[in-house]
Amino acid sequence: MLGKGVVGGGGGTKAPKPSFVSYVRPEEIHTNEKEVTEKEVTLHLLPGEQLLCEASTVLKYVQEDSCQHGVYGRLVCTDFKIAFLGDDESALDNDETQFKNKLIGENDITLHCVDQIYGVFDEKRKTLFGQLKKYPERLIIHCKDLRVFHFCLRYTKEEEVKRIVSGIIHHTQAPKLLKRLFLFSYATAAQNNTAADPKNHTVMFDTLKDWCWELERTKGNMKYKAVSVNEGYKVCERLPAYFVVPTPLSEEDVQRFQGHGIPIWCWSCHNGSALLKMSALPREQDDGILQTQKSFLDGIYKTIHRPPYEIVKTEDLSSNFLSLQEIQAAYSKFKQLFLIDNSAEFWDTDIKWFSLLESSSWLDIIRRCLKKAIEITECMEAQNMNVLLLEENASDLCCLISSLVQVMMDPHYRTRIGFQSLVQKEWVMGGHCFLDRCNHLRQSDKEEVPVFLLFLDCVWQLVHQHPPAFEFTETYLTVLSDSLYIPIFSTFFFNSPHQKDTNVGRESQDIQSKPLSLLTVWDWSVQFEPKAQTLLKNPLYVEKPKLDKGQRKGTRFKHQRQLSLPLTQSKSSPKRGFFREETDHLIKNLLGKRISKLINSSDDLQDNFREFYDSWHSKPTDYHGLLLPHIEGPEIKVWAQRYMRWIPEAQILGGGRVATMSKLLEMMEEVQSLQEKIEERHHSQEAPQAEAPCLPVNSARLSSLFPFALLQRHSSKPVLPTSGWKALGDEEDLAKREDEFVDLGDL
After folding, report:
1. Non-local CB neighbours of 192 within 8 Å, separated by 6+ positions
2. How far is CA 350 from CA 60, 722, 740, in A?
3. Three-state DSSP class for 701?
4. What is the mean pLDDT of residues 589-600?
5. Which DSSP string do the residues of 225-270 spell out, in sequence order?
6. Distance between the two ends of the chain, CA-based, in angstroms?
7. From CA 92, how far away is CA 5, in angstroms rounded?
8. What pLDDT sits at residue 192?
9. Packing angle between helix 397-409 and helix 416-423, nearest 10 degrees?
10. pTM of the model
11. Is the pLDDT of residue 213 over 90?
12. What is the mean pLDDT of the chain?
C-alpha cells in the first residue's frame, strides 16, 4: 500500500518512541527543497474543481512495528478532495497491477469521505473541529471507507499548517448548503461532457413506461396499475412522479392524505402474491380526524385483503424490528475495529477481537435483516400471501427489507443491470434520504445511519454464500459502497426525486433555462477503465441458458477474523396460527398507536420459518430460482474486502478466494482456447466471444484483499500479544481462551 519512495529508516541506538520519529534532519529537507520541488507531481483537477489551500514539506507516513517510514510531498485541499502528492507518484502510476479509480487516487480523499479528523499535540490525540487556538504537529484523518491517513506537519511552515488544517476542518466538518456541493460545480463545468452511457441499460424508473415494463415483467399488471397522479409532485413531494398501486384504488384515495396510508406496490411473485409498502398517516389528537382516518384505512384495507382470494400479512418495521438508532450505534462500534493506526495496535486488539466483534452487534443486525427477509419470502412463496411493509415514511427499513426479498426471490435482480434497477426503484425512487443518512451536508449527525451500507452487507452475505447466482462480484459491491461519497454522481446525493428535480432545474418554469445533466453512478466507465471493469463481473456466474446440473458450489475460505453470534432459536409451537384482527392491527400501526404484542404468535411464525428454511437448504440450489442465505452462527461473516482491505496484517499472501478465482480463470481461458481451435477445425461460423475475464498478475503475487492490495508491507506477528500477555496465564489458560486469540501470522 505504502512501501515506495520512503525516507528514513530503522537506524539509531535507542528504541523509538510510540509516536512518529523522523530520521530525516530538518536541514536535509530544506537543503533538498529545490530538488524536490522540481519533481513535484502536478495536481489533476476535475472540471469545476478549485484548489483551496495547500502545504508543502508534509510527511505522509505509516508506522510499522519499530520502524517508521514516511513519504515526502504536498498536502492540498480542493472543493472536491484532500490529496497528497508524493515524490513516488510516478512509480505508483507505472504499476499496472493497481485497481485504479479514474476520479480518486490512492492518496485522495473526497471531502464527503472524511469521517473524523484528529490532531496530535505532545503525543496526545484530540478530535479537531471549529476554530483552533493551537495547531497540531500531526494530522490523522479517518475515512468513511475505513482508510487512515497520518500526516506529519513538524517541518511544514507555520502559516501553511494553519491554512491547510483550518481549510480541511472547515470544508469537511462545517454545515453546507445543497447547492454548494461539488456535484453542481462539476455538472455545470462538464455540461457538454455528461452524456449517458449508451451501454447502460439500467431502468431508472423515472417514467411511466419504466413502471409499466416492470409490472409486465413480473406479471403484476393483472392486479396493479401504474399511476401518474403525482406528476409534477402535485400530491406528495416524498413520492416519485410515477408509482404503482392496487387497481381498485382511485386517484382520490391517493390524493386524500398526500400519499400516506396508501399501499404502494414493490414487486409481484410468480404465484400472484405481491410485496407492498405503506407509510403511516400523520399523528392526530382530534377524535374526529382519527375517526376519519380509521374509516379511510378500513376502506383501503378491504381493497387489498379479500379472503380467501387475497390475504395480506402486515409487517410493522417501525415498532417490531430494528430501530435506526440500533443500526447507527452498532456500526459506530463495528467500524472502530478496522480503523487501525499501526501494526502494534492491530496485534494489541487481536487478543480481544471476538469480544469486540460480538459487542458491536453489527453481524447480528445483518442476521436479523436476512431472517426478516426470509420470513417475508416464506409468506409469499409458501403461503401465497401478500405482504404489506409498514414504516413511518416507508423510506428506510422498507427499502432494505423489500430489496432483500426481491434479491432472494427474483434472479433478474442478481444480474448487474437488474441489481442497479432495483436500487433505482426501491432506494432512489423509493425516497431513501441519502443526503441525510450519509450526512453529506454535515447538518445533523443524528440523521446519519448507514442503512444502504447495511443492505450491501446483507447482499454480500448472499454473494459470498452463493457466488454462481450473481453476475456481479464483491468488488462491485465494494466500489458501489465507495461511490456513496463521490459527489459527481447524483444517485446518492438527494433525499427524493422531487429534491433532485427541483435543484437541477427540471421543475423550473423558465423555458429558456436548460436543466443540469447529472451523472449516475451506474456509468462505470467514468470511474474505471474497461480492464478494471472486468473485475466487477463474476466469471463464475451461471447463466440461465447454460445452467449445468453439476455446477459446483463456490469454495469458501474462512478468514480467522470472521465470526458472529450463533443463531438463538425460540421454541416452536405445535400449532399453526391464523391472522386475527388484521384490519385493526393495520389501522393501529398507521395511526401511530403502540402495540403491546404482535397479532401473530411468534412461535407460530418461527415454526413456519424453520420448516421453510430447512426444507430449502435440504435441496440442491437452483441459482435461477429462490435463493436463501445461511444465517446461523459463523455463516454470517465480516465483509473482509471492504472492511479489511487497508490493513496489511489482515491479508493472506498468495491466498484467499482470489487465489482460487485465479486458478479457475486460467482453466476457463484454456477451455475457451480449446473451443476456438475446435471451431476453426470444423470451419464453423465463429460465435461472438465474451471478453475473457482476467487477473492481471500471477496468483502467487496476489493477496486475499485483491484488487485493493497486492503484496503490501507485512509485519511479523509477535510471539505473544504486545500488551496484556501476562494476564493470559499459562499455556493451559491460553488454550481455554483461544476465542480471544487469533493467530493471523500463520495465514
Report:
1. none
2. 26, 10, 8
3. helix
4. 38
5. EEE-TTGGGSS-SSS-SSEEEETT--HHHHHHTTTTT--EEEEE-T
6. 19
7. 10
8. 63
9. 160
10. 0.83
11. yes
12. 81
Phi-psi group of 520: left, alpha or beta (phi > 0 → left; psi -120 to 50 → alpha; rest → beta)? beta
Given a contact cutoff of 8 angstroms between Cβ atoms, the answer to whether 84 and 105 are in contact is: no
CB 205 within 8 A of CB 214: yes
* CB count in 10 Å sphere of residue 506: 12
Question: Rounded distance, CA 200 to CA 705, Å?
Answer: 28
Q: Cα dist. 206→240, 313, 480, 513 in Å?
A: 8, 29, 21, 21
Convert the pLDDT of each residue in 250-309 to its tens digit: 999 999 988 899 999 999 999 999 999 999 988 776 788 888 888 999 989 888 888 888
Name the amino acid, one letter, at 122. D
| Residue 665 confidence class, pLDDT cut points 50, 70, 90 | confident
- The three cell numbers locating residue 93: 502510476
Question: Counting beta carbons within 10 angstroms of the beta carbon of residue 376, is it exposed (0 to 12), middle (13 to 18) or buried (19 or more)?
Answer: buried
Q: How is residue 188 written as a grid cell? A: 455545470
Domain 51-174 has CATH 3.30.1520.10: no
Cα angle value 572/575/579 (rounded, 5°): 105
- For CATH 2.30.29.30, list the domain ranges present in the chain: 51-174
* Separation of alpha carbons 388 and 338, rounded Å: 38
User: Which residue type does 33 have?
Assistant: E
| CA geometry: angle 306, 312, 316, nearest 5 deg | 145
